[in-house]
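Sequence in, structure out. Go.
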Amino acid sequence: MRSEKPSRRAALALLLAATACGPRPLGTPVPLGDVQITQDRIEGDGGTALALTQWAPRGTPRALVLALHGYGDTARDTYGAAAQYWAREGVLTYGYDHRGFGANPTRGQWPGAETLAADAIAVAAALRQRHPGLPLTVVGHSMGGGVTLAAAGDGLPADRLVLAAPAIAGGRNLSPALRAGGWALGAFSPNRRYTGEGVVSLQPSDNVAAMQAAARSPYHYSNASGRELWGLVRVSDRAARAAPGVTQPTLTLMGAKDEYIPVGAVQAVHDRIAGRARFVLYPEGWHWLFRDLQAERVWRDVAAFALDT
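Output:
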C-alpha cells in the first residue's frame, strides 16, 4: 500500500525505525565491566553475555572493525557478507548482538539507550586491549549508528566512525508530534508491540533474497513495543546531542531510496559533527545498505575508510 502522503509516511517510518520522563527499561541492566572475549561470546560482570560473531582475514589483520547492528536484527545477518568482503581486504571484524536482540536470552527486553552506548564503549575498549596497534573503526547501522554516535559522545575509544542509515535524527530534527506520539506509546502501552501493518508499508531493500532470509530468521523481528519505540527516540536524541563533541573522522552513508530514515534529517546532524566528516548518498541505496543489490559499493567504501592509515 503506497497511498500515504510522502511526508506522513516518512514521519511514521522515523517513529518505527529510528524510533526526562517516560517508560524505563525493564529492570536495571548490569554493566559489562571488565569484558572477556571468546570465539562466540562477550562475557561481562555479573554473568552478562552477548552473542558474538568474528570474521578474520587469513593473514595478519591490517585494521579492526566493531560492527553494531540495527533494531530487531543480528550482527551475523546485517554484516555477514560485508565482513567476509572486509576480511579479504585484511580487516578483522567483530559483531555482537545488542542486549535485548539477536541470539541473546534477553531478546525482546529493551536495555535502554544508556546501556546500549555503554556496552559499545566497553567492548571497543576490550578490543583495543586485545589488538593493540590496530586502527579501530566502529560501524553502526540504523539503531547501531545512533548507538555509535551516542557512544562517541561518551568517550568511545575508536579511531573512526561509520554511520550507515543511522538513527541519529533526534533533538530538533524530530517533530514534536512524533516525539509526543513516541512518548505516549511508551508511557501508556510500553509492552504492546506494533507492526505498522495497515498504517505504513515500507521496503528495507531491493534485495528480495535478503528480505526473505530475514523473515525466516528466528532472531529477526520488527514488531517494536511502545517501550522500544520511545527508547529508539532516546537513542537518536543522544546521538544528535553528541554530534558537536565528536572529533573522530566520520563517514555517514545513506541510500536515496531509504524509506525508514529521512536523508535530510540525518545530514543535518552529520553536519554538526566536530571532526572531519564525509557524507555519501548512494542513488540506488535503500535502508539495508550492507545487504542491498548494490551493497558491494558500500562494503568497498567502508573498507577503504577503515584501512586509510
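Check: The longest strand covers residues 49-55. The CA atoms of residues 117 and 151 lie 5 Å apart.
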